[in-house]
Task: structure prediction
Amino acid sequence: MNIAENISRIIKEIPPSVQLVAVSKTKSNEEVMQAYDAGQRIFGENKIQDMNLKHEELPKDIQWHMIGHVQSNKVKYMAPYVSLIHGVDSLKLLKEINKQANKNNRVIPCLLQIHIAEEDSKFGLSTEESQEIIKLSKDLRSVKIKGLMGMASFTKKENQVAKEFLGLKSLYDKFIQQNIPLEILSMGMSGDYPIAIQKGSNMIRVGSQIFGTRNY
Ligand SMILES: *Cc1c(COP(=O)(O)O)cnc(C)c1O
Result:
């Protein structure tokens, strides 16, 4: 497993308009640095504590994305530096991010996580809930909803995955038609990013295809 080679293979394969988030959860600083030395600057973590440690110990030009489920009481720990929060799934959480961003004199970019998978195990908002949150977020000055994130069903049925990604792309387009200035559509992981890009993703979150399988 050569991390640098994996990065350049993926970069060559995807259009330049698609951003690659290297998902480094459970991986060591040394492994992150191999990706960094290959030019990668955006990394995703799903636990705030792990992300904080890596942020402290690793180069400061890394952009850290929180891709996991976030508890409101933990937002304060990442508010000073996090560059994108992918998993916003309630107004309560968005309000807390707004409060902590304000304390840090910054605006924190966020994505709304939409429930697109048929399986009901995954987090996320319904279409109606996301509409409502976008409406109510207009008064929140220290957060910016930049786009949507979704995870497809964990299945080998490619047409199922394609259908779910297409559903999220349609919602994204619908918001843009309503003059909501979204820019980021975060969908696609190691197993399904080619399908996600085909369906309109412009940000993929790839872990195991870069760093190898995870031992939890
Ligand atoms: C772990 C994780 C990924 C990356 O998963 P891989 O299959 O290893 O690429 C992407 N998105 C989220 C939200 C994750 O938790």
Q: What stands out?
A: The first strand starts at residue 19 and ends at 23. The chain is about 40% helix and 20% strand. The longest helix spans residues 158-177.
